[in-house]
Design brief:
Elements lengths: L3 E10 L3 H12 L16 E4 L7 E6 L5 H15 L4 E10 L8 E8 L5 E6 H11 L5
Antiparallel strand pairs: 1-3, 1-4, 2-3, 4-5, 5-6
Length: about 140
């Protein structure tokens, strides 16, 4: 049996030490249900970067994560802490066995000021489009 995983690692600068504590608090208080639009706790691991003078959250998935949960969490942090500018992350879809259509990944750029997605891409969709342009049928 094969396991399909989504892996990622990224950081979010929350600017102040109090924001680190608050972000960890609403991460812990998030509902667990994955079908809940406000849930993010089970979608990724959250740690604090211990560098002096830097206030960064490390957001990662060492087993399998939920990219939607990351986006919801980062949008909440941006809104709560007045974060601005672009932020982005990338992810990899992997499989524990070599199976067709089981590998890929993607990336997203988010405008922290508005919460809007500025750009995103997934490698599987890109590959399908490129093969179709080159005349290959599925």
């Amino acid at each position: 049996m094969a396991d399909h995983l989504t892996l990622f690692a990224t950081e979010l600068d929350v600017r102040f030490p109090a924001n680190l504590l608050r972000a960890r608090q609403f991460y812990r208080e998030s509902p667990e249900a994955s079908d809940n639009e406000t849930a993010f706790r089970d979608g990724f691991d959250l740690n604090v970067d211990e560098c002096p003078g830097e206030y960064r959250l490390r957001i990662s998935a060492s087993q399998s994560g939920d990219t939607g949960a990351v986006i919801r969490f980062v949008r909440r942090c941006a809104q709560e802490f007045g974060l601005t500018g672009p932020w982005g992350f990338e992810w990899a879809h992997v499989c524990t066995k070599p199976m067709l259509h089981s590998f890929g990944g993607g990336a997203l750029v988010l405008d922290l000021t508005t919460g809007d997605t500025l750009a995103w891409n997934d490698t599987h969709g890109w590959l399908v489009r490129q093969l179709a342009k080159a005349g290959r049928k599925s």
